[in-house]
Design brief:
globular; single chain; 0% strand; 13 helices; mainly alpha
Amino acid sequence: MKQSGAKLLLTAVFIARGSSFLFSKSLMGTMSPMSILAVRFILAFLVLAVVFYKRLWHLEKATIRGGIILGLLYTICMIFEMYGLRLVDSGVSALIENMAILFVPLYVALWTRTWPKAKTLFCAVMAIAGVGLLSISQMSLDNGGLGIFLIICAALTYGFCVISTEKVSKKGDPVAIGILQLGIMGFLSLIVALFTEGFALPQTQNQWTMLLFLVLICSCFGFTFQPVGQKYVSAETAAVLTVINPLTASIMGVAIAHEGLTLSKGIGYIVILLALLIYNRGSKSAS
Protein backbone atom coordinates (compact mmCIF):
# COMPACT_ATOMS: atom_id res chain seq x y z
CA MET A 1 0.00 0.00 0.00
CA LYS A 2 1.27 3.47 -0.90
CA GLN A 3 1.47 6.19 1.75
CA SER A 4 -1.32 8.16 0.05
CA GLY A 5 -3.59 5.11 0.21
CA ALA A 6 -2.72 4.59 3.86
CA LYS A 7 -3.65 8.20 4.63
CA LEU A 8 -7.04 7.77 2.92
CA LEU A 9 -7.64 4.57 4.87
CA LEU A 10 -6.80 6.29 8.15
CA THR A 11 -9.08 9.20 7.24
CA ALA A 12 -12.01 6.79 6.82
CA VAL A 13 -11.01 5.02 10.05
CA PHE A 14 -11.07 8.23 12.07
CA ILE A 15 -14.44 9.29 10.62
CA ALA A 16 -15.84 5.91 11.70
CA ARG A 17 -14.25 6.23 15.13
CA GLY A 18 -15.54 9.79 15.53
CA SER A 19 -19.13 8.66 15.03
CA SER A 20 -18.79 6.19 17.92
CA PHE A 21 -18.97 8.92 20.58
CA LEU A 22 -22.58 9.82 19.84
CA PHE A 23 -23.79 6.20 19.61
CA SER A 24 -21.95 5.16 22.78
CA LYS A 25 -23.40 8.09 24.73
CA SER A 26 -26.92 7.26 23.51
CA LEU A 27 -26.56 3.62 24.56
CA MET A 28 -25.36 4.58 28.04
CA GLY A 29 -28.84 5.89 28.75
CA THR A 30 -29.97 2.26 29.14
CA MET A 31 -26.77 0.14 29.38
CA SER A 32 -23.68 0.22 31.57
CA PRO A 33 -20.44 1.41 29.91
CA MET A 34 -18.62 -1.89 30.43
CA SER A 35 -21.52 -3.97 29.05
CA ILE A 36 -21.46 -1.83 25.90
CA LEU A 37 -17.71 -2.33 25.50
CA ALA A 38 -17.92 -6.07 26.18
CA VAL A 39 -20.71 -6.75 23.66
CA ARG A 40 -19.23 -4.38 21.10
CA PHE A 41 -15.74 -5.83 21.04
CA ILE A 42 -16.64 -9.50 21.52
CA LEU A 43 -19.05 -9.38 18.57
CA ALA A 44 -16.51 -7.46 16.48
CA PHE A 45 -13.85 -10.07 17.27
CA LEU A 46 -16.18 -12.95 16.32
CA VAL A 47 -17.18 -11.31 13.02
CA LEU A 48 -13.58 -10.63 12.01
CA ALA A 49 -12.35 -14.03 13.21
CA VAL A 50 -14.80 -15.67 10.79
CA VAL A 51 -13.93 -13.37 7.88
CA PHE A 52 -10.16 -13.54 8.37
CA TYR A 53 -9.88 -17.00 9.93
CA LYS A 54 -6.91 -17.95 7.74
CA ARG A 55 -4.83 -15.16 9.26
CA LEU A 56 -5.44 -16.60 12.72
CA TRP A 57 -4.28 -20.16 11.98
CA HIS A 58 -0.56 -19.56 12.34
CA LEU A 59 0.13 -16.54 14.49
CA GLU A 60 3.67 -15.36 15.10
CA LYS A 61 4.78 -14.34 18.58
CA ALA A 62 5.16 -10.72 17.47
CA THR A 63 1.53 -10.67 16.28
CA ILE A 64 0.20 -12.20 19.50
CA ARG A 65 2.31 -9.85 21.60
CA GLY A 66 1.12 -6.84 19.58
CA GLY A 67 -2.54 -7.81 19.95
CA ILE A 68 -2.18 -8.21 23.72
CA ILE A 69 -0.33 -4.90 24.15
CA LEU A 70 -2.83 -2.90 22.08
CA GLY A 71 -5.79 -4.71 23.63
CA LEU A 72 -4.66 -3.80 27.13
CA LEU A 73 -3.81 -0.17 26.28
CA TYR A 74 -7.03 0.46 24.33
CA THR A 75 -9.14 -1.14 27.08
CA ILE A 76 -7.72 1.35 29.58
CA CYS A 77 -8.30 4.19 27.11
CA MET A 78 -11.89 3.11 26.41
CA ILE A 79 -12.74 2.83 30.11
CA PHE A 80 -11.61 6.42 30.67
CA GLU A 81 -13.47 7.48 27.52
CA MET A 82 -16.79 5.81 28.35
CA TYR A 83 -17.02 6.97 31.96
CA GLY A 84 -15.97 10.48 30.93
CA LEU A 85 -18.38 10.49 27.99
CA ARG A 86 -21.21 9.62 30.33
CA LEU A 87 -20.66 12.93 32.14
CA VAL A 88 -19.92 15.42 29.33
CA ASP A 89 -21.03 16.15 25.76
CA SER A 90 -19.86 13.79 23.01
CA GLY A 91 -18.25 16.56 20.92
CA VAL A 92 -16.31 17.84 23.93
CA SER A 93 -15.16 14.30 24.76
CA ALA A 94 -13.88 13.65 21.24
CA LEU A 95 -12.10 16.98 20.98
CA ILE A 96 -10.24 16.63 24.29
CA GLU A 97 -9.36 12.98 23.73
CA ASN A 98 -7.85 13.72 20.35
CA MET A 99 -5.35 16.11 21.88
CA ALA A 100 -3.29 12.90 21.60
CA ILE A 101 -2.07 14.54 18.38
CA LEU A 102 -0.01 16.82 20.64
CA PHE A 103 0.92 14.21 23.23
CA VAL A 104 2.58 11.92 20.67
CA PRO A 105 5.47 14.28 19.79
CA LEU A 106 5.81 15.20 23.48
CA TYR A 107 6.12 11.52 24.38
CA VAL A 108 8.68 11.03 21.61
CA ALA A 109 10.65 14.04 22.87
CA LEU A 110 10.69 12.62 26.41
CA TRP A 111 11.73 9.18 25.15
CA THR A 112 14.56 10.56 23.01
CA ARG A 113 15.49 13.18 25.64
CA THR A 114 15.18 16.00 23.13
CA TRP A 115 13.41 19.34 23.56
CA PRO A 116 10.04 19.51 21.72
CA LYS A 117 9.73 21.92 18.81
CA ALA A 118 8.51 25.40 19.65
CA LYS A 119 5.42 24.88 17.48
CA THR A 120 4.50 21.74 19.42
CA LEU A 121 4.76 23.55 22.75
CA PHE A 122 2.76 26.53 21.43
CA CYS A 123 -0.01 24.26 20.15
CA ALA A 124 -0.03 22.34 23.43
CA VAL A 125 -0.57 25.57 25.37
CA MET A 126 -3.37 26.56 22.99
CA ALA A 127 -5.02 23.17 23.43
CA ILE A 128 -4.82 23.43 27.22
CA ALA A 129 -6.48 26.86 27.05
CA GLY A 130 -9.20 25.36 24.86
CA VAL A 131 -9.77 22.56 27.38
CA GLY A 132 -10.19 25.21 30.07
CA LEU A 133 -12.92 26.89 28.04
CA LEU A 134 -14.64 23.57 27.35
CA SER A 135 -14.46 22.77 31.06
CA ILE A 136 -16.32 25.99 31.84
CA SER A 137 -19.04 24.98 29.38
CA GLN A 138 -19.48 21.60 31.10
CA MET A 139 -19.61 22.80 34.72
CA SER A 140 -23.38 23.10 34.57
CA LEU A 141 -23.56 19.32 34.09
CA ASP A 142 -23.51 16.94 37.06
CA ASN A 143 -19.87 15.90 37.69
CA GLY A 144 -18.80 17.74 34.54
CA GLY A 145 -15.37 18.46 36.03
CA LEU A 146 -14.82 14.75 36.73
CA GLY A 147 -15.88 13.95 33.18
CA ILE A 148 -13.30 16.39 31.76
CA PHE A 149 -10.60 14.81 33.96
CA LEU A 150 -11.47 11.29 32.77
CA ILE A 151 -11.39 12.35 29.12
CA ILE A 152 -7.98 13.96 29.64
CA CYS A 153 -6.81 10.61 31.05
CA ALA A 154 -8.23 8.95 27.91
CA ALA A 155 -6.26 11.41 25.75
CA LEU A 156 -3.03 10.69 27.61
CA THR A 157 -3.57 6.94 27.16
CA TYR A 158 -4.60 7.34 23.52
CA GLY A 159 -1.24 8.96 22.80
CA PHE A 160 0.48 5.80 24.02
CA CYS A 161 -1.93 3.74 21.89
CA VAL A 162 -0.95 5.62 18.71
CA ILE A 163 2.77 5.16 19.34
CA SER A 164 2.37 1.51 20.30
CA THR A 165 0.25 0.79 17.22
CA GLU A 166 3.03 2.07 14.96
CA LYS A 167 5.61 -0.10 16.73
CA VAL A 168 3.73 -3.41 16.85
CA SER A 169 2.10 -3.14 13.40
CA LYS A 170 5.52 -3.14 11.74
CA LYS A 171 6.62 -6.32 13.52
CA GLY A 172 3.60 -8.55 12.91
CA ASP A 173 0.49 -9.03 10.76
CA PRO A 174 -1.45 -5.76 11.27
CA VAL A 175 -4.85 -7.29 10.45
CA ALA A 176 -4.37 -10.19 12.87
CA ILE A 177 -3.08 -7.76 15.50
CA GLY A 178 -6.23 -5.67 15.10
CA ILE A 179 -8.47 -8.74 15.44
CA LEU A 180 -6.66 -10.04 18.52
CA GLN A 181 -6.77 -6.54 19.99
CA LEU A 182 -10.57 -6.53 19.78
CA GLY A 183 -10.77 -9.97 21.39
CA ILE A 184 -8.60 -8.86 24.31
CA MET A 185 -10.67 -5.67 24.71
CA GLY A 186 -13.93 -7.61 24.72
CA PHE A 187 -12.66 -10.19 27.23
CA LEU A 188 -11.21 -7.59 29.62
CA SER A 189 -14.36 -5.44 29.37
CA LEU A 190 -16.53 -8.46 30.18
CA ILE A 191 -14.44 -9.27 33.25
CA VAL A 192 -14.67 -5.68 34.49
CA ALA A 193 -18.43 -5.61 33.81
CA LEU A 194 -19.04 -8.82 35.77
CA PHE A 195 -17.16 -7.51 38.80
CA THR A 196 -18.55 -3.97 38.79
CA GLU A 197 -21.92 -2.96 37.34
CA GLY A 198 -22.95 -6.38 36.07
CA PHE A 199 -23.25 -7.56 32.46
CA ALA A 200 -26.42 -7.03 30.41
CA LEU A 201 -27.34 -7.43 26.73
CA PRO A 202 -29.30 -4.81 24.73
CA GLN A 203 -33.06 -5.14 25.25
CA THR A 204 -34.59 -3.19 22.34
CA GLN A 205 -34.26 -3.09 18.57
CA ASN A 206 -32.96 0.48 18.73
CA GLN A 207 -30.23 -0.55 21.18
CA TRP A 208 -29.18 -3.44 18.94
CA THR A 209 -29.14 -1.17 15.87
CA MET A 210 -26.81 1.33 17.54
CA LEU A 211 -24.65 -1.43 18.96
CA LEU A 212 -24.32 -3.18 15.60
CA PHE A 213 -23.21 0.13 14.08
CA LEU A 214 -20.53 0.32 16.76
CA VAL A 215 -19.56 -3.29 16.06
CA LEU A 216 -19.41 -3.25 12.25
CA ILE A 217 -18.39 0.31 11.41
CA CYS A 218 -16.58 1.69 14.43
CA SER A 219 -14.91 -1.54 15.61
CA CYS A 220 -14.59 -4.05 12.75
CA PHE A 221 -13.52 -1.30 10.38
CA GLY A 222 -12.31 1.47 12.68
CA PHE A 223 -10.11 -0.47 15.09
CA THR A 224 -8.95 -3.31 12.83
CA PHE A 225 -7.73 -1.22 9.91
CA GLN A 226 -5.93 1.46 11.92
CA PRO A 227 -2.90 -0.88 12.35
CA VAL A 228 -3.04 -1.57 8.59
CA GLY A 229 -2.87 2.14 7.73
CA GLN A 230 -0.26 2.89 10.37
CA LYS A 231 2.04 0.22 8.97
CA TYR A 232 2.80 2.60 6.08
CA VAL A 233 2.87 5.97 7.88
CA SER A 234 4.56 7.36 10.99
CA ALA A 235 2.90 7.76 14.38
CA GLU A 236 3.15 11.54 13.95
CA THR A 237 1.24 11.38 10.63
CA ALA A 238 -1.47 9.22 12.20
CA ALA A 239 -1.72 11.66 15.10
CA VAL A 240 -2.20 14.58 12.69
CA LEU A 241 -5.03 12.77 10.93
CA THR A 242 -6.87 12.20 14.21
CA VAL A 243 -8.21 15.78 13.91
CA ILE A 244 -10.90 14.22 11.68
CA ASN A 245 -12.19 12.23 14.65
CA PRO A 246 -13.29 15.14 16.87
CA LEU A 247 -14.61 17.11 13.88
CA THR A 248 -16.93 14.21 13.06
CA ALA A 249 -18.05 13.79 16.68
CA SER A 250 -18.57 17.53 17.24
CA ILE A 251 -20.67 17.99 14.09
CA MET A 252 -22.80 14.93 14.90
CA GLY A 253 -23.22 16.05 18.53
CA VAL A 254 -24.56 19.47 17.57
CA ALA A 255 -26.54 18.43 14.47
CA ILE A 256 -28.02 15.13 15.67
CA ALA A 257 -27.93 15.11 19.48
CA HIS A 258 -28.67 18.87 19.70
CA GLU A 259 -25.87 19.39 22.21
CA GLY A 260 -25.83 23.04 23.28
CA LEU A 261 -23.26 25.41 21.78
CA THR A 262 -22.46 28.10 24.36
CA LEU A 263 -19.98 30.93 23.80
CA SER A 264 -17.23 29.36 25.93
CA LYS A 265 -17.81 25.97 24.30
CA GLY A 266 -17.68 27.44 20.81
CA ILE A 267 -14.48 29.36 21.53
CA GLY A 268 -12.99 26.23 23.12
CA TYR A 269 -13.77 24.26 19.96
CA ILE A 270 -12.12 26.91 17.80
CA VAL A 271 -9.01 27.21 19.98
CA ILE A 272 -8.36 23.45 20.10
CA LEU A 273 -9.06 22.94 16.40
CA LEU A 274 -6.73 25.85 15.58
CA ALA A 275 -4.05 24.23 17.74
CA LEU A 276 -4.44 20.98 15.83
CA LEU A 277 -4.46 22.71 12.44
CA ILE A 278 -1.42 24.89 13.27
CA TYR A 279 0.45 21.79 14.36
CA ASN A 280 -0.55 20.10 11.10
CA ARG A 281 0.40 23.05 8.88
CA GLY A 282 3.81 22.60 7.36
CA SER A 283 4.46 19.43 9.34
CA LYS A 284 6.77 17.11 7.46
CA SER A 285 4.87 14.17 8.83
CA ALA A 286 1.73 15.31 7.10
CA SER A 287 3.32 15.55 3.68
